[in-house]
């Protein structure tokens, strides 16, 4: 075996957080904290007290200033006005014993008074995963379009799931495609924006499934999945997407992600036929404990499999009959090398090769430094490690040490195209870079 360590070849392409990617969402002053006192009634009183001429001037300026920053901005303001009133905007709105009828301008102002912009990437952009995109049109020979999920971090360290696309190939070429504006939050099947207050969702041990969809004219790069239920009210973290094929040959996109409510974490599942319509479910069972589940792309031995980190520091294998309830986990990998003294975990869904299941890993070592490695699992018995990379495939270099979280390179999923393993990765939880390695060369370096 060659003594020279195999390393990822970095490319120049970079994806930086864009603070102009903002979502307008319902804002109820005083209710930001669960123990807060609502100030909504007083705000409504002030809106109703303004002279109509001033109201019309403010409403016109709102449309001029924000109309292009948000899809269907005026309709959203009307909806928010309805949400804070007990009657439609053209009917009576009882406040302080009065029942005035709201003009169109005052309705817009009322809605805007209960609306705030949230920059989905205002703090950081990180932890990408990569799958084959649904749309492969308009490509040249040797190219493939990649769909990337992104963890955006905004005000209050709230995480959401965004998307981007890139063109891989020919050869060692990689180019991120433009991400259009405005960013658009998904809409639930009930017709409400997917972002809801945690207080609106009844508590319980298992959160209900919900659906989110995007209009046909909203491109993949515009779409944002925001928290929708109580257990993810403080974030949807580290989605690991895979194109899963079932026993009947039907393929769909699936992603595990970590839900965080500010105190506790839970493993959840997204399923989608096209990355436009999504359904979210709570995952249960011993294998769904802790963070970092990663699904296999097909059944193995008639079962659905997932890698997980049930104890927080080692990699395990869990099985499920239905994809929702995950059984007791079997140990796969423990920390061994100096660069993984604190913990190991997966770096995305396993990739099937003719030699075994290739799993990129993350290891955490001294100074809480994250590096990316690789192991090879047996195709028929994936709990058995048959090869491992003796040194990190990727570690933070001098230019990658600084960020929102220093000393971190981290990926939630890689992509194989034309003999290359493409590895998008987050740097310091702040920005996203890309590298590649020849797949066969990587497999050749895996030692038993």
Explain this structure.
The protein has 448 residues and is mainly β. It folds into 2 domains: 9-20 and 120-445, Glycosyl hydrolase domain, family 43 (Tachylectin-2, Chain A, 5 Propeller), CATH 2.115.10; 22-118, no CATH class. The chain has 5 helices and 28 strands. It has helices at 40-49, 52-66, 73-83, 104-113, 439-445; strands at residues 9-15, 22-26, 115-119, 124-132, 144-154, 158-168, 174-176, 184-185, 187-188, 210-213, 223-225, 236-245, 251-260, 265-272, 277-282, 294-295, 304-308, 315-320, 330-333, 343-346, 351-353, 356-365, 369-377, 385-388, 409-410, 415-417, 420-427, 431-438. Strands 4, 5, 6, 7, 8 and 11 form a 6-stranded mixed beta sheet that branches. It has a 6-stranded antiparallel beta sheet with strand order 9-10-15-14-13-12, with no helix packed on it. A hairpin with a 3-residue loop joins strand 27 (420-427) and strand 28. The protein is elongated, with a radius of gyration of 24 Å. The N and C termini lie close together (12 Å).
Q: Which CATH first-tier class of the largest domain would you pick?
A: Mainly Beta
Broad shape: elongated
CATH superfamily of the largest domain: Glycosyl hydrolase domain, family 43
Question: Which value, in Å, is the CA radius of gyration?
Answer: 24 Å
Number of strands: 28
Average pLDDT over all residues:
90
Number of helices: 5
| Number of discrete domains | 2
> Main sheet?
6 strands, mixed
Task: List unreliable stretches of 5+ residues.
Answer: 87-99, 190-208
Can you name the CATH architecture of the largest domain?
Answer: 5 Propeller
Strand content: 35-45%
Q: What is the terminal separation in angstroms?
A: 12 Å
Helix content: 10-25%
The fold-level CATH name of the largest domain is: Tachylectin-2, Chain A
Structural class: mainly beta
